[in-house]
Amino acid sequence: MDRDFSEAYRELNRRIINLLDSFSALSALSSLDLRNVDETTMIRNALKGLMDNLDIERCSVFLLTDGELVNCTGLDWDDLDNWENADIIKHRIPSTFTVSIGEGIMGLAVQHKSLQHCHDCSADLHYKNVYGQKIGSLISVPIFQFGGEVLGVLNISHSTPHFFNEWHERFLVVYCHCLGQLLSNYRLFNHMEQEIEKHAAQLYHSQKMEAVGQLAGGVAHDFNNIITAISGYAHLVFMKMSENDPLKRYVEQIITSSDRAANLTQSLLAFSRKQAIHPKPINVNNLIKGLETLLLPLIGEDIKLKTDVPAQELFIMADSGQFEQIIMNLATNARDAMPAGGELTIAVKRVDIDENFIERNGFGQPGKYVHISVSDTGSGMNESIRNKIFEPFFTTKEVGKGTGLGLSIVYGIISQHAGYIDVRSVIGKGTSFNIYFPAISGIVEENRSKPATALMTGTETVLIAEDDENIRNLNATFLQELGYRVLTAVDGCDALEKFNEHEDKIDIVILDVVMPGKNGKEVYDRIIETRPEMKVLFTSGYTADIISSKGISEKELDFLAKPHPPVELSRKLRKMLDKK
């Protein structure tokens, strides 16, 4: 068991490092200045951000020109060592070097519009030797512009054969989509008038958010599966420990770390707007008043907190947990802007957005809104900083003291709720964030149910269909500990075979949404053909948009998102089985 924990923890550590490297490389890409640089310099700066975060020896970009790939620019380790000396940095490949479509690894990447991986260049007939370069491994990835047309190819290489793995492939596909958007925007910016550039910048910001969201969605599934396994096994060990076991505090630390990793994933999905939300009618007045006790220790004794809530109760349709996160993030920002103390004011009122408002402010749709303002008396911001504050990873804090995700998360949550946010700031006088949520008529709030804490046992037979071995074994072991009889299936096809073989014995089925062969929805449709009354619980670590694309509606079908603690699985199963 100790060895399994150790291996799982090392694997989690490797995945987290890959995740952070991915976001660092995309952060460097998203922060590039497209103004006052030529195209080659802009691409070279992008490649530097890639090499700073990935262990590669050489990378280059070839752009498609008149039906041929023409070398644009490239970098290797020597270039990074001499980065400050512009005269030394130059192409390692002659600028006249060209490749035809279909020729070599690069040409095949363009021809097939897909990533090409040369694991061992010395044994691959498609690899085209380049004079003066020792290349063992090579990946070529097409760079797409808007609409799906190929702009060029990104190449990364290493002298060691079989150096790159599946993570490199997945990340580079996302990176090249972002690079293509960046290159398209660069060319667009250089041919636009001033007024058009303003709108293009808004589009560019939106696309950067979506690009990071693609990466977050791509890693969320694997990341959530790992966290679920580690957290689940840790809970199992914790359950079996005596109260005085000296190792208990170490297991508690593993559970706490797993929870932090799960929260990181949810935060990334929040600002990418791919996190599932559960909106309900909420009373804004009561929620703001209830947050006062949480905000006071957060902002400190040297900052005075004022709340201005009207007598008239105001309601919005929102996810209360995410609404609280908005206020907490803005309060944290306000605290940091007032190191010597000051005043933080949260005010609520009802406003009408009309055509005059939209014309004055440049945003909004006509209607009735609840306006929440979060204002401080801090240092304020200049226009340059104010224009960047909602961009992912932008921060004015020292290295190690801020991720640059706080306001991006706020922006993503508000946008997902069909709301708007505006910021006004004056240097030396403070900042005010103005949030607008669509108002709804007064509805009595539902009381929030408390999370279950006790494990709920059973004796029924459960069929678990899960392609991830760690999760499958974890859930099987856990449910057997609770008294259930368990059957397991490794994919969708195996699930149907096991169900047909034991149909009369099975009481409930747990289906992973995305599996090889047949996905969870396809298996579900076949099962209810013969057993319409069969209880089925869907589970997945994928993002809400991918789950929805597989035909799964969390509102219509029973669903449990990964990662989830074992107690939540036991509660959900018991509730479904006891339902008549």
What does this structure look like?
The protein is globular, with a radius of gyration of 27 Å. The model is unreliable at 88-94, 399-404 and 444-453 (pLDDT under 50). A hairpin with a 3-residue loop joins strand 12 (420-426) and strand 13. The strands form 3 sheets. Strands 7, 8, 9, 10, 11, 12 and 13 form a 7-stranded mixed β-sheet that branches. The chain has a 6-stranded antiparallel β-sheet with strand order 3-2-1-6-5-4, sandwiched between helices. Strands 15-14-16-17-18 form a 5-stranded parallel β-sheet, sandwiched between helices. It has helices at 2-30, 39-53, 77-81, 104-112, 166-189, 194-240, 248-272, 284-299, 320-336, 355-361, 383-386, 406-416, 469-481, 492-501, 520-530, 544-549, 566-578, and strands spanning 58-65, 68-76, 98-100, 116-118, 137-144, 150-158, 280-283, 303-308, 315-318, 342-353, 367-376, 420-426, 430-440, 461-465, 485-489, 508-512, 535-540, 559-561. It is built from 17 helices and 18 strands. Helix 5 packs antiparallel against helix 6 and helix 6 packs antiparallel against helix 7. By secondary structure, the chain is an alpha/beta fold. The longest helix has 47 residues, at 194-240. The chain starts with a helix and ends with a helix.
